[in-house]
Amino acid sequence: MQRSKFTFARIKYKSGNWDTDQRMPSNLLNSLLEYTTIPLDPEEKIVELSSHDLFKYPFCYLSGHKLVQFDQQEAANFKKYVNNGGFVFVDDCNHDIDGLFAKSFETQMSNLFGPTALKKISNQHQIYHSFFNFEKGPPTTSFELNGWGDDLVHDYLKAITVNNRIGVLYSNKDYGCEWDYDFRNKRFLAEDNTKFGVNIILYAMGINS
Asked: What confidence score (pLDDT) does residue 106 get?
């Protein structure tokens, strides 16, 4: 895997809808440029889950609203990628633990890694302190506060851990939509809400402040 330069790689899978929140990657790349000195690829890369190209990238993003049902090659690649040190940030755009994306994705993870592999992580986990400090755990999104989705504020994230490191970080909070705006509009926010995205990426890359 190429760790010398960060590339935002988005996973394309055959079921469901994978191409959500299209401005979000450039927004996070701008945040990395603003807050860190790590070398960046300025363009998002789309990587098919069934392709061996997946193994070039240590960080990948997967999202959607609909059914997640990997075919045989997609499932094999996903499992091999995670077990060999890859990191996948998975975000449920429905922000709904009873929604189609959540139920089908969690079924896929159970099939690949076992029924107890996907677990809630502590709000004191290293990922909340890898660059910026989030003392209360995962920051709340405006969609949760507005009562969309399951009308819950999720005070946790889930993860699959491999060799004491997160391999799959799973969110029902809809960070993708929260960060889906032109990066030039961040100046209008009282607090830059993409900072947690910086934490996620630096943790995935094995870089700590």
From this structure: 97
Q: Which residues contact 89 (CB under 8 A, 6 or more apart)?
A: 59, 60, 61, 62, 169, 171, 200, 204
pTM over 0.70: yes
- DSSP assignment letter at 125: S
Task: Name, in order, each residue with C-beta under 8 angstroms of 73's C-beta and a sequence gap of 6 or more.
Answer: 49, 50
Distances (CA, A) of 64 to 20, 31, 164: 6, 23, 27
d(CA 17, CA 62): 10
* pLDDT > 90? residue 87: yes
Distance CA 119, CA 157 (A): 8
What separation in angstroms does the CA of 38 have from each of 24, 28, 46, 147, 172? 19, 13, 21, 37, 28
Q: Please write the tens of the pLDDT for every residue from 192-209.
A: 999 999 999 999 999 765
